Amino acid sequence: MISLRRATGDDVDWLVELFNDEEIEPFLAGRRARDAETIRADVERSQQEPRKLGRMIIEVDGERAGAMAFDERSEANRIASLGGLAVHPAFRGRRVADEAARQFQRYLFFELGFHRLELACYGFNERAIEHAERVGFVREGVQRRAYHRHGEWQDAVLFSLLREDLG
Asked: Which CATH number belongs to the domain containing residue 28 in this structure?
């Protein structure tokens, strides 16, 4: 059983390990928090301002399996920016991220009232691009050479999902 919950202070050390794992770190945004102090601040803010941002834990049968996040990008237009999707290597290959993403979409649209979800991933991250398309996101375009990461300029592939896309 796959479920989502908000991260708590008890998750901080686990998140630090997850985000710094050598199989995960290269695919996360360069600005993504990876140290305990910043992650703890994000988790606390997620608890205090649950509509503004969310730092979520993906669980499989009650065991931490991954993380995902959102930040409110526009209150007036009800837009959330998604990111920070990371699944622990022990849980890969089981479509954990797909089910968690679908739950996350429903939560953001129907419980928090967002109208539009946006995400961007590096052009080299084929696994993330395929995941976004599998869970219903629509590719909107490419920002060419938008981010300097790993010593090179990287494209960003842009996606969105609208509330009405879920039916």
From this structure: 3.40.630.30
Q: Is the pLDDT of residue 31 over 80?
A: no
Residues forming beta bridges with residue 4, ordered by sequence position: 58
Q: Calculate what percentage of the chain has a pLDDT beyond 70.
A: 98
Range of the structural domain that residue 33 is part of:
2-166
Helix (H, G, I), strand (E, B) or coil at 100: helix
Q: Give the model confidence (pLDDT) of 118-141 as tens digits.
A: 999 999 999 999 999 999 999 999
Domain count, the chain: 1
pLDDT for the residue 30: 65
Structure-derived torsion over alpha carbons of residues 70, 75, 78, 83, reported in degrees to the nearest 10: -20
Rg (CA), the chain: 15
Task: Please give the Cα distance from 140 to 50 (Å, whole number).
Answer: 28
Half-sphere exposure of 120 (CA within 13 A, CB side): 16
Residue 128 CA to residue 147 CA, distance in Å, equals: 16
**Rounded (10°) CA dihedral 135, 128, 81, 79:** -30
